[in-house]
Amino acid sequence: MTVTWEDLGWERLAAGVGRCRLPVWDCTAGLVLGAGAALVVDTGSSLGEGARLRAQAQELAGHRVTHLALTHPHFDHVFGAAAFAGAEVYGAVGTDALFARGGQGREALRSDAVAEGLAARRAEEAADALVPVRHEVCGEWTLDLGGGRQVLLADVGPGHTAHDLAVLVPGDPEVVFCGDLVEESGRPQAGPDAVPSHWPAALDRLLDLGGEDALYVPGHGAVVDAAFVRAQRDALAARFGVSR
After folding, report:
1. Phi, psi of 132, rounded to the nearest 5 degrees
2. pLDDT in tens, 84-140
3. What φ, ψ does residue 80 adopt, rounded to 5°?
4. Which residue among 13, 27, 170, 211 is least packed, with the fewest CB closer than 10 Å?
5. Strand 165-169 vs strand 175-183: parallel, antiparallel, or unpaired?
């Protein structure tokens, strides 16, 4: 029997494109299927969560996950990455330096995870296992997943962090994975690594990529439309005193 997206608790967004909302932090993970290739967008908040995502993605794809795209370097989006052995890992330029062994970036991610409620042991094992980001995107990068499926990775930040990557999946409809540049389930979070002065411009870039009819997938919450992204852009500009 063929397994459907819904069977596994995923939301199908377009042909070969879906996402799921993970428990606890309501973080989104995405999946894009090609011919013999599969791209996962973000990997959850722990190695165990990453392993569950990998198993579900492989069941839907019928083969292993070949590519990972990390939308930004926060623990709830990257701590499951090491569960995807052998996958090619992509992130915005500068992400790999944050993951360097012995660096302050790993310790900051571990500390943040514990502060947010992840068990210390799980946070430490995930931080220790962080995978290198071998492919850093500066500007745009087109991935060919086979079968006519191409995906555009775009370094659209800074904004929510200094290293924000968007994933555009052409089709009908087009789907844009936004990471935490867009949040639907609450006000966008601006931590110490945010760059508020550039955040509205990053949302303008998302809108340029996807257009009016795209589905925009936030890092947390329900899928939204261009009008929602535009309204959040204006709210962020007002919140941080950024002129249009």
Report:
1. -65, 145
2. 999 999 999 999 999 998 778 899 999 999 999 999 999 999 999 999 999 999 999
3. -90, 0
4. 211
5. antiparallel
* pTM for this model (two decimals): 0.97
Closest CA to 200 of 234, 164, 161: 234
Task: Give the DSSP letter of residue 188.
Answer: P
What confidence tens digit (pLDDT) does each residue in 23-78 have?
A: 999 999 999 999 999 999 999 999 999 999 999 999 999 999 999 999 999 999 99
Residue with tokens 């377009």: 14
Q: Which residues contact 111 (CB under 8 A, 6 or more apart)?
A: none
Across all residues in the chain, what is the average pLDDT? 96
Q: How far apart are CA 214 and CA 173, in angstroms?
A: 6
Q: Please, which residues bridge with residue 155 across strands? A: 165
Q: Which pair of tokens denotes residue 189?
A: 């979070």
C-alpha to C-alpha distances, 147 to 33, 170, 202, 214, nearest whole angstrom: 9, 13, 31, 22
- Write the pLDDT tens digit of every residue in 184-236: 999 999 999 999 999 999 999 999 999 999 999 999 999 999 999 999 999 99
Q: For 124-205, where are the E strands, in sequence order? A: 135-137, 140-146, 149-155, 165-169, 175-183
For residue 15, count other CB atoms closer than 10 A to its CB: 11
- CA-only gyration radius of the chain, Å: 17
Between the alpha carbon of residue 74 and those of residues 31, 113, 130, 201, 206, the distances in Å are 19, 9, 12, 21, 20
